[in-house]
Every structure is written in structure tokens, then in C-alpha cells.
Write a structure and sequence with these properties.
Strand content: 25-35%
Number of domains: 1
Number of helices: 1
């Protein structure tokens, strides 16, 4: 049985972008976000009050690929207007070349 090498064999690295939208529409405004950058050893800086993209579609137009969207869920009876966790999550990825 052959196992995968522990060291990457290509110079492609993954970046992840988690966008939390105002609703399920990919054109909806981004209300929160987080990033994870496999191309760098640096921790992300979170001092910018503005999201990296206004919408998920804007990120897609910049080369980010959608890999997961939040399923639509009907709120429980009586909870239609309660606030809770950020449930409209979209996960995007971008593969970037890094120098060896």
C-alpha cells in the first residue's frame, strides 16, 4: 500500500475565506468573515473593519471558488425573529502558486 507524501509535491497552496452573509442569497451583504492563508506563515490581521468583499459573488469574480454554502433552514415556530449564530455561511477557496 502506497501512502501520500508528507511534503507537498506542488507549489499550490490553499487559502480559505469564510463569509457570513445577511441571508442565503450569494449577492447578500457580508456581515462577518474570517480568512485562513496556507500560502503564508503569518497570522491574519483582523484590524480592518471592512470585509474583503461586499458579497460572495464579488469574491467569486476575483477567483475564489465556492466549496460550501449554508443549507436553508426553516426557523422553529416562535423563533422567526430571534437572533442567534451566523447561519448564512459560505466557504470559498483559492489555490495560489508559492515559490519553492
Amino acid at each position: 500500500m502506497t501512502t501520500a507524501p508528507a511534503v507537498p509535491t506542488t507549489n499550490l497552496r490553499q487559502k480559505l475565506l469564510f463569509l457570513y452573509l445577511a441571508n442565503t442569497d450569494l449577492h447578500a451583504a457580508v456581515i462577518a468573515w474570517s480568512t485562513f492563508d496556507g500560502t503564508s506563515n503569518d497570522r491574519p490581521e483582523m484590524d480592518d473593519p471592512d470585509p474583503p468583499y461586499a458579497t460572495a459573488v464579488a469574491a467569486m469574480r476575483d477567483g475564489w471558488r465556492v466549496i460550501q454554502v449554508a443549507p436553508m433552514q426553516r426557523p422553529a415556530a416562535g423563533q422567526e425573529f430571534e437572533l442567534g449564530y451566523l447561519k448564512f455561511e459560505v466557504i470559498l477557496e483559492k489555490l495560489e502558486e508559492v515559490s519553492a
